[in-house]
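so my prof wants the structure for this chain in the tokens format not the other one, which i didnt know existed until like an hour ago. anyway here's the sequence
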Amino acid sequence: MLYDLFPPHTAAIFDLDGTLIDSMWVWHRVDALFFAVRGIRMPEDYPLAVQTFTFAETAAYTVERFGLTESPRQIMDEWNEASSNLYRDEVKMKAGAKEYLLWLKSRGVKLGTATSLTTHVMQSVLAGNGVIDLFDALTSGDEVPRGKAYPDIFLLAAQKLQTEPAQCVAFDDIAKAMRGIKAAGMTACAVHEPESHQDWDEMQRLADICVRGFA
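here's what i got, hopefully its the right format
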């Protein structure tokens, strides 16, 4: 089904964590370390609560929720340090993802990102997997004020690609992002991620297209 999307779409915008790359384990490790060194038991609802936030929103939320003395900037620096090497050296793309990007590129489809990762980490993981040059524009969560439940990041990605939103299809693995994609006026493609299985029923209701993966 994915290979039948183009035309009419002339641009494809991809989330990274859980969509193009197999990286959810990184944040389990970072979160476990972060809370352990502070003697805090991580609440079960924490990952779900922050899943559509930008990096800055997540840091601010974490500081406020747990009454931390560090600033959001200090929290973000700690997370970046803990995760950046893992993304660069160990995180790999999902099965079939690179082949699908190459197929789209060979047909003249513009490629972009819309990820909550910071710009530095986004660039590291794409370069580490040898695909950064396939993308025409990169957009990360530190460039917009609101998370993916809103259209901001998707509209910015389309603007960078110099493409009308209606000609874009955006891929993501969480339900709230489907709302943001649709609010941006784009075609929404839900990509199944086992870590977000609780979202799958809602994603299937919200998305225009649903796939189990790229392979």
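also thought this was worth mentioning. Residues 72-89 form the longest helix (18 residues).
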